[in-house]
Amino acid sequence: MDRSVNLVVDGHEHSLSVDPRTTLLDALRDHLQNFSPKKGCDHGQCGACTVLVDGRRLNSCLLLVLSQDGAEVTTSDGLAAEDDLAPVHRAFLDRDAFQCGYCTPGQVCSAVGAIREAADGAPSVVTEDLEARVDLSDDDDEIRERMSGNLCRCGAYVNIVAAVRDAAREDR
């Protein structure tokens, strides 16, 4: 028996009727034809499906869409203004932080979340001073730790770290 769920995805309201077992990832891709988040491992291990849910980065393959009723979901596509790329998008392009591009939408959403978390003062495992504000614009160890949930099979990590650093500088 299908259930109703309401979502705001990339600024647009949607009412869906879904099987209760439907994940947020499958609702986005199969019901809303939003192919920005990718289905990689489908087990929350690769990060290809990362989206922002009410501003927090989450693996959409692990979330039942019914548990997100009323949530605001932002995919990589929703970060850009109409004809203008978001700063993270620009940084990824400028730094050539992708090869095949499959993981890029998840990497971009994760980068936005990581930059916000650091700006809000959330420490990571490698944060030395828990009282100080973390500045991702000059701390590659912090970036690597915060982005560690997003895998890139092509190995573009050096450029991804540089892109996140650049986006964090612009966000300051």
Automatic annotation (TrEMBL):
InterPro entries: 2Fe-2S-bd, 2Fe-2S-bd_dom_sf, 2Fe-2S_ferredoxin-like_sf, 2Fe-2S_ferredoxin-type, 2Fe2S_fd_BS, Aldehyde_Oxdr_Iron-Sulfur, Beta-grasp_dom_sf
SUPFAM superfamilies assigned to the protein according to its UniProt record, in alphabetical order: 2Fe-2S ferredoxin-like (SSF54292), CO dehydrogenase ISP C-domain like (SSF47741)
PROSITE patterns recorded: 2FE2S_FER_1, 2FE2S_FER_2
Coiled coil: none
Keywords, in A-Z order: Iron, Metal-binding, Oxidoreductase
One of the Pfam families matching this protein, by short name: Fer2_2
Span of domain 2Fe-2S ferredoxin-type: 3-79
Superkingdom field: Bacteria
Protein name from the UniProt record: (2Fe-2S)-binding protein
Native species: Dietzia aurantiaca
Organism placement in taxonomy: Bacteria, Bacillati, Actinomycetota, Actinomycetes, Mycobacteriales
